[in-house]
Amino acid sequence: MIHTETIDLYQHFSQAKAGDGGMVSVYALEPIGKVDPNRRFPAILILPGGAYQWVSPREAEPVAMRFLSRGFSCFILSYSCAPARFPTALREAAMAMRFIRENANDLHVDPEKVTALGFSAGGHLCGTLGTLYDAEEVLDIAPSSVIRPDALILCYPVSSSQGRTHYESFLSLCGDDPALMERLSLDRLVRRDMMPVFLWHTRTDDSVPVDGTLKLASALADKDIPFSLHVYAYGRHGLATADD
Fold first, then answer.
1. Are 25 and 78 in contact (CB under 8 A)?
2. How many angstroms separate the first and last alpha carbons of the chain?
3. Is 120 left (phi over 0), alpha (psi -120 to 50) or beta?
4. How far, in Å, CA of 147 to CA of 159, rounded?
5. How far apart are the C-alpha atoms of 212 and 197, rounded to whole Å?
6. Which of 74-88, 91-105, 157-171, 178-192 has the lowest mean pLDDT?
7. What pTM did the predictor assign?
8. Which of 78, 120, 136, 244 is most buried, most CB within 10 Å of its CB?
9. Could you tell me how many helices (H) and strands (E) the chain has, helices first?
10. Which residues pair with 3 in a beta bridge?
């Protein structure tokens, strides 16, 4: 069985609305009948892409359906995009993590197995969630242990703000603020106490060049973070579940 609902995080946590997002779509697995009624499922917080200008539906419910079939409860965050700037989307992702963990018992979720999964600009948001979970911008949301994901999956992410990159995503997130763009480059945010990271990209991505993912992988290696990197020879940007 699957429990579904949509949660307005701002309303749920009695916070003033900061953007047009902050909505979580819940797809939570439930134990069937009397077979292992106390079972807890691993969870995935899905952060679709969209250049911080919109939230792509292609990287939302279709992804949740695939992971549901493999025994994961899924939570899709529709986060605020431009004209909302940093840290609005990050704060909403932090609220989503808080919601998942605070309601873990009711949702039959294992609070120690909550992964964040992001695509493109959502991959960047995922990366900031995995590195800035104890930053001053989110300290009022919840303790860092509640916000911190247990693992990250970054799918053709917008990673680096320098060199060959998708500059429009950083412009949407940061406005014309070079210092903030530099700060939010994921390769610069990597820290030694990070969670494991799974990365994948395609060599022929002509929208978000693979260069940023390679920089990020190098930074992870430098900090001795467990990671897996997959660069496929061909494939356009925005593959989502990589099927028809």
1. yes
2. 27
3. left
4. 21
5. 15
6. 157-171
7. 0.96
8. 120
9. 10, 8
10. 28
Q: Give per-residue pLDDT as tens, 169-214.
A: 999 999 999 999 999 999 999 999 999 999 999 999 999 999 999 9
**Whole-number pLDDT of residue 31:** 87
pLDDT tens string 11-25: 999 999 999 999 999
Token representation of residue 145 = 């242990």
12 class by beta-carbon count within 10 Å (0-12 exposed, 13-18 middle, 19+ buried): middle
3-state secondary structure of 63: helix
Could you tell me the two tokens for 176? 């014309």
Show the beta-strand stretches assigned E in the chain.
2-8, 23-29, 41-47, 73-78, 109-119, 151-155, 197-202, 227-232
Which pair of tokens denotes residue 237?
A: 């940007």
Which amino acid, residue 180? L
In whole angstroms, give the CA distance from residue 14 to residue 197. 33
The residue type found at 210 is V
pLDDT digits (tens, 9 = 90+) for 48-80: 999 999 999 999 999 999 999 999 999 999 999
Q: What are phi and psi of 63, to 5 degrees?
A: -70, -45
**Strand intervals (E) in 85-150:** 109-119
pLDDT of 58 reads: 94
- Tokens at 99, concatenated: 């919601």
What is the predicted pLDDT for the residue at 121? Answer: 98
For residue 162, pLDDT beyond 90 = no
